[in-house]
Amino acid sequence: MSSAESALLTDLYQLTMLQAYHDQGMNDIAAFEFFVRKMPENRNFLLAAGLEQAVEFLENLHFTAEELSWLASCGHFRRDFVDSLEGLRFTGEVHAMPEGTVFFPDEPILRVIAPIREAQLVESRLINLLQFQTLIASKAARSVLAAPGKLLVDFGLRRAHGAEAGLLSARASYLAGFTGSATVLAGMRWGIPLYGTMAHSFIQAHSIEVEAFEHFARAFPQNCVLLIDTYDTEAAAAKLIPLARKLAADGISIRAVRIDSGDLGEHARRVRRILDDAGLNDVEIFASSSLDEYKLRELVASAPIDGFGVGTRMNTSADKPYLDCAYKLQEYAGRPRRKRSEGKATWPGRKQVYRRCGAAGTFSEDLLTTDDDVQSGVPLILQVMKEGRRMAPPLNLAEIRDYAAVQLAALPEPLRGLEPAPAYPVTVSYRLRELARFVDASIEVG
Amino acid sequence: MSSAESALLTDLYQLTMLQAYHDQGMNDIAAFEFFVRKMPENRNFLLAAGLEQAVEFLENLHFTAEELSWLASCGHFRRDFVDSLEGLRFTGEVHAMPEGTVFFPDEPILRVIAPIREAQLVESRLINLLQFQTLIASKAARSVLAAPGKLLVDFGLRRAHGAEAGLLSARASYLAGFTGSATVLAGMRWGIPLYGTMAHSFIQAHSIEVEAFEHFARAFPQNCVLLIDTYDTEAAAAKLIPLARKLAADGISIRAVRIDSGDLGEHARRVRRILDDAGLNDVEIFASSSLDEYKLRELVASAPIDGFGVGTRMNTSADKPYLDCAYKLQEYAGRPRRKRSEGKATWPGRKQVYRRCGAAGTFSEDLLTTDDDVQSGVPLILQVMKEGRRMAPPLNLAEIRDYAAVQLAALPEPLRGLEPAPAYPVTVSYRLRELARFVDASIEVG
Question: Which structural domains are found in chain A, ordered by start?
Answer without folding.
Answer: 3-137+320-350+381-442 (3.20.140.10), 147-315 (3.20.20.70)
